[in-house]
Amino acid sequence: MNSDLQKILVDEQTILNRIDELAGQINSDYAHLESIVIVSILKGAFMFTSDLLKRINVPHVVDFMALSTYGAESKVSGEVRVIMDLRHPVQNQHVLIVEDILDTGLTLQFLERILQTRNVASLKTCVLTQKEGKENNLINIDYLGFTIPDVWVVGYGLDYADKHRTLPYIAELKPEVYT
Ligand code: 5GP
Q1: Residue 101 CA, ligand 1 centroid: distance in Å
Q2: Distance CA 157, CA 136 (A)
Q3: Model confidence at 133, in pLDDT bands (50, 70, 90)?
Q4: Which of 32, 43, 55, 62 is the most exposed place for a label (fewest CB within 10 A)?
Q5: Domain spanning 12-148 has what CATH number?
Q6: 158 lines ligand 1 (CB under 6 A)
Q7: Where are the domains of the chain?
Q8: d(C-alpha 147, C-alpha 30), whole Å
Q9: In the predicted model, is pLDDT for residue 114 greater than 80?
Q10: Which residues contact 29 (CB under 8 A, 6 or more apart)?
Q11: How many Å lie between the centroid of ligand 1 and the Cα of residue 54?
């Protein structure tokens, strides 16, 4: 294991097993719809989106958005930037947001607000991980993969300074690397 890493929190097989379950729930909940739009948030959710969508049998299109939060201080004030917007309109579409991790919830709250103004038919969220003790009222997660400890995690799409993003598991970064 890379020396930046403290320990593996969720191994690859556990992630894939849980994604099977989430996909099963999504397939059943959306079974009655003709099609849905998956909105995947770059970069962090790219691996999760890929493994999840291989298992979704409801007709769907996938589109991508890239968001960025300003530095830690601005994040408190809720400042989020759209780096890349969706390619296609989502008006009257059933939208499922696929996101990597929920910490304060500000990023997802911002995104939900934007998509609501575009008059979607419905909006749900599928989030791979949520940090323990960070559950809040900002966001209602419809499909959650795992609750994880409140530490900095990398792997399975998540990075630290653009490193460790392509690891097949979710690992805790050593605190001395990011403090
Ligand atoms: P929130 O707005 O919920 O506080 O933060 C969500 C965003 O912060 C995520 O989309 C992700 O980009 C980043 N983030 C929060 N916690 C972590 C973490 O432990 N590891 C990584 N790699 N990104 C995180």
Answers
A1: 6
A2: 24
A3: confident
A4: 32
A5: 3.40.50.2020
A6: yes
A7: 12-148
A8: 24
A9: yes
A10: none
A11: 24
